[in-house]
Every structure is written in structure tokens, then in C-alpha cells.
Specification:
By secondary structure, the chain is mainly alpha-helical. It is elongated and about 65 Å long. The N and C termini lie far apart (about 65 Å).
Length: about 90
Amino acid sequence: MPARIHAPLPQRGRQTEEAGFSTQEKAIARLTAVYQEKKAAPRNRSKADRIQKYGAMQFREYTTEWKAGQRDLAESSLRTLESVEAQR
């Protein structure tokens, strides 16, 4: 079996040229379309929902809601949360 030759992976955060486009304008149009699709992804909606729900919430309200959803919190964790809530 012949050895496999792998092309080096691009470094993170670096842009690479996309092959298969006859002109630079077509490549730019494709990259723009990909960017717009990512920008319109549903995760942006969920982020907006989180901001709407928690944005105006006070820390004490948040910790009360969070503690209600937790199971098996250690006594020391509860004391720490209560001391932080008392400072606010």
C-alpha cells in the first residue's frame, strides 16, 4: 500500500484561496454568499433570545433561577453563591 501524502492544513485564522473558480469575481461572490449564510444562521437568533431574557435580569434573579436548575450542589457552592448574592 503506497504511503498517503497529506496536504498541509491551513493555519487557523488564515484565509486560503478557494480553487475551482474561473475568475476572482466569482470567488469573491461565493465567499460573500458563504459569509451571508453564516451571518443569518439561527444561532444569532438564539443569542438575541438570551440577551432579551438575561440582559435586564439582575444577578440575584439569575442565580436564583440557575440554582433551581442545578442538582447536587455542594454546601460550599451554595455558601459561595449566597455570599456573592449578599454583596450585590
